[in-house]
Amino acid sequence: MKDVAFGQYYPVNSFVHRCDPRLKLFFLVAFIAAIFVANNFWALGACAAVLIAVVALSRVPLGKVLRAIRGVLILVIFSAVISVFFYSGETVYWKYGILCVTREGIFFSVFLIIRLFLLVICSSMLTYTTTPVALTDGIESIFHVHVLALIMSIALRFIPILMDETERIKNAQKARGADFESGNIFKRIKAIVPILIPLILSAFRRADELGDAMDARCYMGGKKRTKYKKLTFSWRDLVAFLTAAALVTGVALLRVYVGGM
Amino acid sequence: MHAIETKDVSFSYEGGGFRIAHLDLTVEEGEFLAVLGHNGSGKSTLARLLNGILVPDSGTIRVFGTPLDDQHLYEVRKQVGVVFQNPDNQTVASIVEDDVAFGAENVGLPREEIAKRVEFALGAVGMLGLRNAVVSRLSGGQKQRVAIAGVLALKPRVMILDESTAMLDPRGRREIVEVVKKLNREEKITVILITHFMEEALLADRAVVMNRGEIALTDTPAGIFARHEELLTYNLALPRIGVIAKKLTEGGLRVRDTLDPEQLAEDIARSVRR
Questions:
Q1: Which residues in chain B have Cβ-Cβ distances shorter than 8 Å to A2?
Q2: ipTM value > 0.95
Q3: CB contact under 8 A, A210 and B94
Q4: Domains plus CATH for chain B?
Q5: Where are the beta strands (DSSP E) in A4-151?
Q6: For A94, which of A17, A101, A183, A236 could close a Cys bridge (C-beta 3.0–4.6 Å)?
Q7: Each residue of B144-188: pLDDT tens digit?
Q8: In this predicted model, what pLDDT tens digit does every residue of A21-34 receive, in sequence order?
Q9: Are strands B2-12 and B206-211 parallel, antiparallel or unpaired?
């Protein structure tokens, strides 16, 4: 539970982990664009090949990568089934009322499945290989906002603390005979109130003390602040950039010269 | 030059009575001062006044001759670091070295300088090996050492520890006290140790007892502990070793008033043999 601060981050040292978070964000955007520009299997295959290379380079175990798919599996199957039955096309295999199965429909839903899987895997690769703090640092540096990374950093720092606190309060209330497990939904929600109120009070008290401690360490807003860990682009980022650029261009060319299926 | 000099400083919280009343306190450069007092004696308020988190209603505070006012606030804050009581409520980052860098980042130091200071501060508290550790997984003593390092990264000349050992176990307490003693000796940092553990005050050059926002006693730690009855009226309990020595004297054994267990053992042995 104490690892919440790192979200899904998978801590190994790899090519992908060491890429600049800004570049990883750019790569993700470019990749999503490529997925949706791709309208034939060649182009989609190219996207898949690039993503497989990224996964291999990241040294994140395949099981973990596939687990990301599991969460959206039902959604993907549902949308695929819907599009098989409602997509209208010329080569009709089966028809019943407004439902029809066409060659184009089947192609479309296979496409949809692959697109969604690629999308989900690529975005989770970002969170597997980048800590939340690095990610906000990147966003902060792209959009030139100053307090964002600090807010993120403090929020992440206090999640495990407040979770411990919740547990403590819950036990204290249980010791006084509070019942959190039985009764209907309304009863249970009402039972949360005696946990919530002390928790919020304590959070405010902590915030107050943290404010004093930050003041004592000369915090005076973002203007003069410098950064200990500065983001710098390296050759890895150039490689990643060129790959993303090549992918988008390649997919666009395939769309123009080969066309849809 | 005095490290800290307060003249006739008074402070009260809104609606409350005086928390600090007409306080005159001088701390010399390089001194190790212990501030003792029961809850509500005003000792924590003092810590917050000395680096400008609270502003006195009247009186002046000078730090190395610089008056503590709006104009010199950050100049003073750079020189006077405060380590607070709760280790969890003073870290802003999840990773040790990121948190230590926070203060140095705030004052806009160049990156190479920040790196140097992080290295120095972590070395001084013996946490270099854990620079990439996750703060929430550390022990209380380790967290508090990180907090000390975070203050050290600003290279302060005065360090105030506001009950920084109160929430720690005995081992963590020992860790912190040792680090502080070392900083005082080796880095020549002036230390103001605010505590209600009287044993800790023994390490100091001088101790003051606060009561109702005033300084009730000033003496060497041993001198203060010798005044048992007076301490009780300020709601302060003697260290156990002192109580034992006192009881033995009352029981007719001839032992000196001491807080040193070795010395007490010697005295007991001598008077029993006789």
A1: 134, 136-137
A2: no
A3: no
A4: 2-87+156-236 (3.40.50.300), 239-274 (no CATH)
A5: 92-96, 99-102
A6: A101
A7: 999 999 999 999 999 999 999 989 988 898 889 999 999 999 999
A8: 999 999 999 999 99
A9: unpaired
